[in-house]
């Protein structure tokens, strides 16, 4: 192969990678649903999947939250099914207070006398 073939290969590779980058940037910007159906960056999302688990090879059980209500859905298979609707969102657990840092080993005279008592006066 001569240098012309290597140059043409490198330019073709750069062109293909550039096209892949442009398509990926377009999908990120507009998304698969289109630009009008997504929320803006400053707004809060109203719909989200809280948890999902596989029931079997074809069906999935999903807990979906919309505003302050959760819905349990069974999707996949021949049809989708709403298992439970209008579930209240559980309250957040109270935060765990920070525990105090562990103190250093005691080195005072009380600890020394305790060591002497335990060891029987042996050094």
How is the secondary structure organized here?
Blueprint: H1 3-30, E1 47-54, E2 59-66, E3 69-76, E4 81-88, H2 109-119
Antiparallel strand pairs: 1-2, 2-3, 3-4
Q: What's the mean pLDDT score? A: 80
Count of helical regions: 2
Structure summary, number of beta strands: 4
- The value of Rg in angstroms is 32 Å
Percent of residues in beta strands: 25-35%
Low-confidence stretches: none
Q: Helix/strand/pairing class, anyone?
A: alpha+beta
Q: How helix-rich are the residues, as a percent range?
A: 25-40%
Span between termini: 84 Å
**Widest sheet: strand order?**
1-2-3-4
For the largest beta-sheet, the strand count, sense and barrel status come to: 4 strands, antiparallel
**N to C succession of SSEs:** HEEEEH
